[in-house]
Amino acid sequence: MKLYYSPGACSLAPHIVLEEGGKPYEAQRVNLAGGEQRTEAYLKIHPNGRVPALVLDDGTVITENTAILPYLGKKFGLWPQDEMGEAKALSLIGLFAAGVHPAWAHISRPGRYATDETAHPNLQATGIASFTTYLRQIDGMLAGREWFGDAYSVLDAYGLVFYAWATRRAADFPMAELKNYRAFRDRMVARPAVRKVLEDEKVAV
Ligand SMILES: N[C@@H](CCC(=O)N[C@@H](CS)C(=O)NCC(=O)O)C(=O)O
Fold first, then answer.
1. Whose Cα sits closest to atom 18 in ligand 1?
2. How far is ligand 1, taken at its centre, from the CA of residue 189, in Å?
3. CA-derived radius of gyration, the chain
4. How many domains are there within the chain?
5. Atom 2 of ligand 1, nearest CA residue
6. 36 plus 134 within the same structural domain
7. Statement to judge: residues 70 and 98 lie in one domain
8. What number does the ligand 1 atom closest to the CA of 112 have?
9. Ligand 1, atom nearest to 10 Cα
10. What pLDDT tens digit does each residue of the chain (205 aa) get?
């Protein structure tokens, strides 16, 4: 399998899962800052010009974390086996992809939401407020728990992405308050596969 990723982007989650899986895979960097995601060649892989994209050995492409993470999780035993566990996992992946990630995008890519640049500071302030609400919600989810689900799973790889993003703009967020999330971060970093990917991508959490 081949993962198209960009260092520190949401593709960090499937990258960690592939590393945890322990099977050979290829990680192909996409230069987002240089606009590689909008080249004709990359748009053939991901028509929306985003990472992650996962290319299977038969050439099939899977895009969207909501599909890639359950796919890899089932392959590598990092996905709940019971019906309710799966429903809860899909619920959290949906929240991460449709709520938390777009809140961040309001901060990091306001141009996606308004061409009028005078609106950007307002979009960013709104993003900071909603991302903060999500950080507190996630911290609450982790109270008294080791992992997001009943066992270590793809949810944890995805959950680490947002902690990493928050640390990039730590002054904007109540990092000191997020004790459960920080303890979760420490448990993640203690895992050799997670450490290896963070080192390979040169991502600080
Ligand atoms: N819903 C998509 C979001 C993918 C996405 O927005 N990826 C960002 C990086 S975190 C990206 O490729 N941005 C490049 C761009 O906007 O040009 C998923 O979860 O897979």
1. 64
2. 24
3. 17
4. 2
5. 64
6. no
7. no
8. 16
9. 10
10. 999 999 999 999 999 999 999 999 999 999 999 999 999 999 999 999 999 999 999 999 999 999 999 999 999 999 999 999 999 999 999 999 999 999 999 999 999 999 999 999 999 999 999 999 999 999 999 999 999 999 999 999 999 999 999 999 999 999 999 999 999 999 999 999 999 999 999 999 9
Domain of residue 39, residue span: 2-76
> Is the Cβ–Cβ distance between 193 and 156 less than 8 Å?
no
Prediction pTM value = 0.98
User: Does residue 124 share a domain with residue 57?
Assistant: no
CA-32 nearest atom, ligand 1? 14
Cβ density class 130-151: b for 16+ within 10 Å, e for less: bbbebbeebbebbeeeeebbee
Dist. CA 56–CA 155, nearest whole Å: 21
